[in-house]
Design brief:
single chain; 35% strand; four-stranded antiparallel β-sheet; Immunoglobulin-like; 224 residues; globular; mainly beta
Amino acid sequence: MRTPLSFKILTLALTLGMLGSSNYAIAAPKKGSVCKKIAQTFGKGSKKVTCTPVTQLKWVSTPVKPLPGSIFAPAKLGQQVRITSADFKVENIDFNVGDSICAENAFNEGCAIGPKSQGIVDANSDIRWIGIKIEVENGFQKSFSPTISEFILYLVKEDNQLIENNIAVVISNSLFDLRIESGESASGIVVFSVPKSIVGLNPLLVIRHQVGTTPKDSYFQLDW
């Protein structure tokens, strides 16, 4: 008796599926092994691992309830993270902040003087500007200022190298110019001069609080 054609096709599909799952499935990374992209995750539940900076980037078990702002759970846009006794959150990302930077001071990096002696973005510059607007709510019992001696902020390149925020630029409403009274909140901008040769960025912002001998990093997920 002949086997129906539909049955042969079904059998072939199931066979190919089994071959695909056995020969081509991505192997789960081993805990402690080296990984390549910071904050990348693999697996689910108790088997979930995260690419984490240790002595180098390694796969580490993800906690069941990771702290918001940790490498295991970068804070989403608008989500607060407690750093010391202040709450930080990313409000938005401004890819056109160069217009404000150059209008403020034509001698800022990446700027030129326009036909009416105004500051404009230099189209031939080797860098482009990215601005991150951050809101800080002060939970201290006294006024609080996020100073450049305490806080360093970084963008993350695709190769996991860090780009530090630019503190030399002259700009209004800088995060580091804020003075926030107890119980109040205010927003300020941090800016990054990113070389145009860098075509890709990992969608992460790192805020490093460096008081004491062990700096603490908090992670924020950016919506590119």
